[in-house]
């Protein structure tokens, strides 16, 4: 495969209350999950996930050392002529002399402070958070007995997953773990005798020999051998038992694995969670799992309409990479806030990836953006956390590009773009920009002709973050609100509409 491979091109190719909670645990315990799709489909999304809306995770590992191109460096460095390969040859020498394993002693993480990271996530407004426990590169970020190639045994010599699980829970957030290790099959050129990836001594890191190129097909040819799948299962169960995550995010390519491994691992997780008395779930992408088994995740994209089911977007704070690289192109906090609002209005949640440096320092632009998002949520969080979708997700001229990788094709929202959330007798209307040429905003969806909100049903209206008394009219044109002269804050702004 003599071309640079990226995650995006590959996926495009193959994929054109406490009492109540205790009661629910007891009920589900009586209906233990069996390793069948029908049984697993009965497991619903956790109530905490429905309320949380916003989470943070991070790509951090051996690939953070070269910090070039993207998190696929470990694969691309071996592909002759790729950007990563050219960089690697120039800086470190040919892969035949300096392999990916040789970065491990350079990964010191000497400034890694999990308590500070967790505090930052909380200040950003996240309600759930966690690490990439293992990416496609075969290096486990926890103290593993299944895989000797792990961060507790070499590199930083720290149990990153364990330390983060404690720190995140201490900040009052749910702990999650993301797992990508099914990608290891065929990730490296294990049949190329000129590089270390073919050496049996390093098979624990690089994976077993993979004849052909599984990346050329929608399904690998041949499929992963049973010992590879057994190791995949062993790693997953080890994370479950050691760290008890409240959510496991599975990357794509689950469909490469045998059904018995998938149903066995997921049922094991759900049944273990019953013992912990914890509501849990898994995420999946595209058609990797049957509908209803876990939470659908849309990578770098979202839905275009309101959904009846819970779903997730995982997106990165960088436009191009999921890990720290040179010359990063960060999204603005404004853009992330608008994305969050749009997703929540359609019954989804956002999991935002951030990019720590190899030494454990969080880049200042990342910190600035996270704190700005947290500041916005400290004012407007009641329109996000614990809300439910309304009858209509919103209105406005901006058309998003739905589906995976649609985010980069979605333009910025305007002052005419409005999104709705609700809570009991309260409707929240969140405008995604402040108008420049008018003092009024008209919410057309609330016109009295359509009767989504009947005439006389509105009792009062407040602007979150402002003490100003608002003047408003409700008629056939819609709900017209006169804005105060002072903006309540940066980015989007939310009206709290009390209904009779």
Structural commentary:
The chain is α/β, with parallel strands linked by helices and 500 residues long. It has 2 domains: 7-299, TIM Barrel (Alpha-Beta Barrel), CATH 3.20.20; 394-499, Golgi alpha-mannosidase II (Immunoglobulin-like, Sandwich). Helices cover 27% and strands 17% of the residues. The protein has an 8-stranded parallel barrel. Strands 9-10-11-16-13 form a 5-stranded antiparallel sheet, with helices on one face. A 3-stranded antiparallel sheet has the order 12-15-14, with no helix packed on it. Helix 12 crosses helix 13.
List keywords for this structure.
globular, 17% strand, 2 domains, five-stranded antiparallel sheet, 500 residues, alpha/beta, 13 helices, Immunoglobulin-like, TIM Barrel
What is this entry, summarized?
With 500 residues, the protein is of the alpha/beta class. It has 13 helices and 16 strands. It has helices spanning 7-14, 18-29, 37-40, 47-52, 73-76, 83-91, 114-123, 160-170, 203-206, 226-243, 259-276, 333-345, 364-380; strands spanning 54-58, 128-134, 174-179, 247-250, 281-285, 295-299, 311-316, 348-354, 394-395, 418-423, 426-431, 440-443, 458-463, 471-475, 478-482, 493-499.
């Amino acid at each position: 495969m003599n071309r640079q491979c990226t995650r995006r091109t590959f996926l495009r190719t193959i994929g054109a209350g406490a009492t109540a909670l205790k009661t629910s645990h007891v009920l589900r315990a009586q209906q233990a999950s069996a390793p069948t799709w029908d049984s697993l489909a009965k497991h619903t999304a956790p109530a905490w996930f429905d309320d949380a809306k916003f989470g943070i995770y991070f790509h951090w590992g051996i690939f953070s050392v070269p910090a070039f191109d993207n998190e696929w460096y470990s694969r691309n460095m071996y592909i002759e002529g790729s950007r990563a390969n050219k960089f690697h040859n120039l800086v470190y020498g040919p892969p035949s002399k300096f392999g990916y394993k040789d970065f491990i002693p350079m990964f010191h993480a000497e400034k890694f402070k999990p308590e500070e990271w967790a505090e930052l996530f909380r200040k950003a407004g996240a309600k759930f958070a966690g690490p990439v426990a293992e990416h496609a590169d075969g290096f486990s970020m926890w103290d593993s007995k299944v895989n000797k190639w792990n961060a507790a045994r070499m590199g930083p010599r720290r149990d990153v997953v364990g330390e983060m699980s404690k720190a995140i829970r201490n900040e009052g957030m749910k702990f999650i773990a993301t797992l990508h290790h099914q990608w290891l099959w065929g990730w490296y050129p294990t049949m190329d005798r000129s590089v270390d990836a073919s050496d049996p001594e390093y098979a624990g890191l690089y994976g077993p020999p993979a004849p052909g190129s599984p990346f050329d097909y929608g399904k690998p040819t041949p499929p992963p051998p049973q010992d590879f799948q057994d190791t995949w299962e062993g790693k997953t169960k080890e994370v479950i038992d050691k760290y008890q995550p409240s959510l496991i995010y599975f990357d794509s390519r689950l469909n490469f694995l045998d059904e018995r491994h998938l149903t066995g691992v997921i049922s094991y997780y759900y049944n273990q969670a019953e013992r912990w008395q914890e509501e849990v779930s898994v995420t999946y992408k595209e058609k990797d799992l049957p509908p209803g088994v876990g939470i659908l995740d849309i990578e770098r994209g979202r839905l275009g309409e309101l959904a009846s089911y819970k779903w997730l977007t995982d997106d990165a704070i960088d436009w191009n990479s999921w890990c720290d690289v040179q010359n990063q192109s960060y999204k603005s906090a404004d853009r992330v806030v608008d994305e969050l609002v749009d997703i929540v209005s359609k019954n989804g949640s956002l999991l935002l990836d951030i990019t720590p440096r190899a030494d454990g320092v969080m880049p200042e632009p990342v910190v600035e953006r996270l704190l700005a998002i947290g500041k916005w949520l400290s004012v407007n969080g009641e329109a996000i956390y614990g809300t439910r979708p309304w009858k209509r997700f919103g209105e406005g001229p901006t058309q998003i590009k739905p589906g995976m990788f649609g985010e980069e094709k979605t333009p910025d929202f305007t002052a005419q773009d409005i999104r709705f959330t609700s809570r009991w007798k309260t409707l929240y209307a969140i405008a995604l920009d402040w108008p420049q040429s008018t003092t009024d905003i008209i919410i057309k969806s609330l016109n009295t002709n359509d009767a989504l909100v009947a005439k006389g049903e509105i009792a009062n209206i407040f602007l979150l973050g402002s003490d100003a008394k608002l003047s408003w009219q409700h008629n056939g044109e819609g709900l017209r609100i006169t804005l105060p002269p002072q903006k309540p804050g940066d980015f989007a702004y939310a009206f709290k509409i009390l209904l009779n």
